[in-house]
């Protein structure tokens, strides 16, 4: 089933290079803008430079977010994903965190987004940006808590708690402590709720 996270991560097909727009099965409309962003026009001059293309696309996304134009931001986001192919290693390494921050905000506010869509996007970003796994997992759990999905949030935190990648850095240790703290707080809340329910039954 096509959803917003698919639009943010899927490759370009030959049909879409010909068509001017696509419509997902969720009813979300995604005009094809890859050709527009393949050449950045400045003062009537077409600039095909990769860096300028992604830089301009990022500016379009930020402007759309400021104006709460979630659909337009999602359309630009699809094209911004080419940053993952940047030859500049520092930009390529920083890209997953930028994509996660922008994409999660779009999905949180987009009127046709849902929990399933957000979960799919979060899981994909955890695999793409392993250095951001703990941060994404924590924010994902908070999103689930916001939607009252306590068991899913607890499962997410448990997975993050046991995750390791390379040598543990000081930043990783801080995030692990945060994950553990939220998990313990969630478990305490669940326990207190059950205790309250049992006491009410006893009365």
Automatic annotation (TrEMBL):
One of its GO terms (cellular component) is RNA polymerase I transcription regulator complex. It holds the Pfam family TAF1_subA. InterPro entries: SL1/TIF-IB_Component, TAF1A. It comes from the Eukaryota. Coiled coil: none annotated. GO terms for biological process: transcription by RNA polymerase I. PANTHER family: TATA BOX-BINDING PROTEIN ASSOCIATED FACTOR RNA POLYMERASE I SUBUNIT A, TATA BOX-BINDING PROTEIN-ASSOCIATED FACTOR RNA POLYMERASE I SUBUNIT A. This is TATA box-binding protein-associated factor RNA polymerase I subunit A-like. The lineage of its organism: Eukaryota, Metazoa, Chordata, Craniata, Vertebrata.
